[in-house]
């Protein structure tokens, strides 16, 4: 049976950590896709993770790229792309720019991975999930948002830091 292909769109902290976990757990071969200005970062993260393979004993493949054609035939697409919040911002402040980003992402996923199951992590989550759904034309059972687990983990970490 062929190994699944996982496309991570957005090579920042969350995308990079997901790439590490997905390859270590051999969930599938992984592609980290980001904009051309970040290609060096995605290639570097991929190389770092790939160099762990002999030590950790996994054989999943990983590639960093800025070429959307590398998303071709992905089984799962996880979207973390977007502008992160800066101090003093709330998630709604990200809406305008991240809608533009998700529109481009949705068009690429529709073109290169039209049968993928899509998990959106980008904020503001509900608006970004809905925008992806509308632009891509994917059926509603193929697009979900993931916020609860990440936000719950952050809450638990901050609570632990405050209470010791």
UniProtKB/TrEMBL annotation:
The reaction(s) this protein catalyses: (S)-malate + NAD(+) = oxaloacetate + NADH + H(+)
Q: What are the entry keywords? A: NAD, Oxidoreductase, Tricarboxylic acid cycle
Q: Which GO terms describe its molecular function?
A: L-malate dehydrogenase (NAD+) activity
Q: Name one GO biological process term.
A: tricarboxylic acid cycle
Q: What is its EC number?
A: 1.1.1.37
Give the record's GO CC terms: cytoplasm
- Pfam families assigned to the protein according to its UniProt record, in alphabetical order: Ldh_1_N
* Top-level EC class: oxidoreductase
- Identify the residues that the record assigns to the Lactate/malate dehydrogenase N-terminal domain, covering every copy: 5-145
* Protein name as catalogued: malate dehydrogenase
State the organism named in the record. Answer: marine metagenome
